[in-house]
From TrEMBL:
The keyword Ubl conjugation does not apply. CDD domains: ALDH_CALDH_CalB. It comes from the Bacteria. Belongs to the aldehyde dehydrogenase family. This is Aldehyde dehydrogenase. Keywords: NAD, Oxidoreductase. It comes from Marinicauda salina. GO terms for cellular component: cytoplasm. The keyword NAD applies. InterPro entries: Ald_DH/histidinol_DH (IPR016161), Ald_DH_C (IPR016163), Ald_DH_CS_CYS (IPR016160), Ald_DH_CS_GLU (IPR029510), Ald_DH_N (IPR016162), Aldehyde_DH_dom (IPR015590), Aldehyde_DH_NAD(P) (IPR012394). The lineage of its organism: Bacteria, Pseudomonadati, Pseudomonadota, Alphaproteobacteria, Maricaulales. Pfam families: Aldedh. The active site is at E219, C253.
Amino acid sequence: MSEVETRQIERMKSVLEAQKSAFAAEPRRSIEERKHDLKKIEEMVKARAADFAEAINADYGRRSAAETQIAEIGFMVADAKHARQNLTKWAAIKRKSVPMTMAPGKAYVRREPKGVAGVVAPWNYPMQLALAPLVAALAAGCRAMIKPSEFTPRTAELLKETLSELFDEDHVAVITGGPEVAKAFCDLPFDHLFYTGSTHVGRMVAEAAAKNLTPVTLELGGKSPTVIASDFDVAEAAKTIAWGKYFNAGQTCVAPDYVLTPKGTETQFAEAVIASAQRYWPHGESNADYTALVSERHHDRIGELVEEARSAGAQVIQAEFDEAPEQGIRAFPPTVVINPPEDIRLMQEEIFGPVLPVLGHDGMVDAAEFVNRRDRPLALYVYAKSKRTARDFLDRTISGGAAVNVPMLHLSVEDLPFGGVGASGYGAYHGEAGFLTFTHERAVFEAPVWHPSRLIAPPYGKMFDFFKKLQAG
């Protein structure tokens, strides 16, 4: 461990203590103060949009400015605004009915902040996936520490700069550093820990949190399937699937990871996907709207997955693509792999890049069985003209979220909870679900000064017998 990392670890421990002390001194931040916090984030994102776009672009080597606007800037403005506008309703006391056997009295739920939250953010959407959990935590009345990814250092430093201008460190703090710092961060006794990243690391985060009995939200990934029914034109489906797959060069946790299309249509569909990709991103090697891969290591890994599939006999189709003309641009061509063997890495690992396996299915029951033999995915997409066919497929499968006839857009609906199930994670956020993630729902029963429950105290007699009859109905 370097001296810099050691200092960062010591710093974050002291920041945590400061935040816990500040929360103890002010555990019930008012709704108006919280709304003001959210407004500050909303205005900051607007004001520093160009700076964030530049930082993310520099971290990637090339990140589409349009994709940054859609998935980071625009998303966060809408998210913070939605939370601010709905906070009063979300935070209100929730009245509950009181059974006759416990009357008179009042029952209700108080929605209270958990305390200090830790947020571990990944590199693929480095601004959105740091700030969206922060918005939820601040809406709930928590204080928060954020650990951005070391793979996007410029964005991490900009987050640290902008948030330090808005909040004192005992309210919101950004901790930078490498893997050792991240590990030590997850070992801290937060009141809630929120992690977005790989399933492999997610297991280690859960283990670290368990040592402190810290509740944890895991937003992971996996192999999100897309299934095309026989009544849907595969060339038409290819248009939106290509957009969803190659947006951010496939570096999206809910990107279509593989496609199941009716047997006999695999090549037709694959060619339509590549044709769509070339229309969307012509000359992708030099097109500023086609995002590069985040690191050389990741670029090499994607290339290895494709070559392994090719060596295994799978057909590979790629968009026309020259070597990237600019030094440091790690662009990889939109790629489709037709009918790869199920035992190769391409079909075992989350791809997280611009490579789309396509396999044939023998009907929707067969497709559902294929999906269900694997870990439960973060997202699932089904293309069908018949609503009954689509809904029947959803009945047959389990996934964190789903969309019909379009990929990815479910995560942009502000009132839909976003999260995984099984190996793709647990817990959810966005909208009220995010507010509740960082909230303790405290159950309260208020009895009057004298309550009939005293009549059934020991020694048990006739009043207890009467009470027993009431309970029996």
